[in-house]
Structure prediction request, 455 residues.
Amino acid sequence: MKKIFPLFILFLASGVCRAQFSQATRDSIARLSALDHQQMKQQLNIAIPNRPGPSGNPDAPNAANRTESKVNQYTLPDPLVLKNGKPVKTEKDWWEKRRPEIVEDFDSEVYGRLPKNIPRVTWKVISVKDTTIGNYPIREKTLSGIVDNSAYPEIKVEIELVLATPAKAEGKVPVVLELGFIRWPFGNITPEPNRLISPGEPGWKEQLISRGWGYAIINPTSFQADNGAGLRQGIIGLVNKGEPRKPDDWGALRAWAWGASRAIDYFETDKDVDAKRLAIEGLSRYGKATVVAMAYEPRFSLAFIGSSGAGGTKLLRRVFGEQVENLASSGEYHWFSGNFIKYASTLTPDNLPVDAHELVALCAPRPVFISSGSPQVEGQWVDAKGMFLGAAHAGSVYKLLGKKDLSTMEFPSLGTPLVSGDIAFRQHAGGHSTGPNWSTWIAWACRYWGECKYY
Prediction:
């Protein structure tokens, strides 16, 4: 199955991926993704079909559980117990013993390993212009991160990045990096997703600029396509020289997090950016990538994790909303390592050596804010309570490291901000968006960054 339809896959991983797909293209993506999914199962010696995941349609016969009384009983791995059964009692034990164990399990079984031979990225400034966001003047830079492909010239990878800082700023400013969508100047325009805010509030970019902070947007699909058909292109395909992944190779979530780290490399060279005060934000699948990036990249000081659901901060063992069987299907498996498929076929989620609370724990002691929408508007597929519990069960690690946890294991009522600690949570009344939580996040972030001034 070497290099199936390479020209078509190249098409998928190119800038055309940012345009709307035709039905024929979507069908081809699904077919090629299914072939790659099956190829990985063959590597894993899995002959049986995957267990089907539940449906997100509440009226479907196989609808996902949306009733709290039907949630299963489960036992979570303890983030403060070593694999040999001994408790973690000191910060040294966490950093030198337990944390490496958890990282190894996520690397092998969930998100995949970062390759040792990833080529370097050279940043090029495409344009600089003075413009405005709302009533605020900004300086906007459009950049391209050109990945060295000399080892395999057949694949070209460039990272799309936009950086905006207040034009009136004196000195370096904090920056929030969003994993999102860019109106790129080369003809392929992707509309920004729904980021509705609370009534009467300015947009998120305007809110940040008004406080003297900057923002940046990185386009994850510019360097790794969001489908299995693109795994032999993009940064994953470039490292593998167009060959299929091995079972513990990185998936798209880890690749997108890698791209966020390369953006930091650039920020550290930009005279307008305070690289000691960088945050990362993302919604939905990019919310998943946000918590992965925060867990693996210590240079991010804050995180704003939006509706990440399963594969993000939601407990994977909890049977409510989206399940491991959905994540390990041919439509979503590309986010993860190949090994993750096992847990929807020959193994079960209870066999996972780790769960989402330990991913949040890997972010410690740095502050994280977990955001969700209401069940009436956003729906219950992302499982807001499951995300809350992922945050709450990470608290023991934060406390060990001298930080403050959520201070409760009781799921709060809609709109209640749990923001007194270094783990924060709020379920807003809106839909699948971080928009209504931006003002709450900014007020919380001011505790760490200061300079909450207004122009």
Notes: The two ends are 58 Å apart (CA to CA). The first helix runs from residue 6 to 13. The first strand starts at residue 121 and ends at 133.
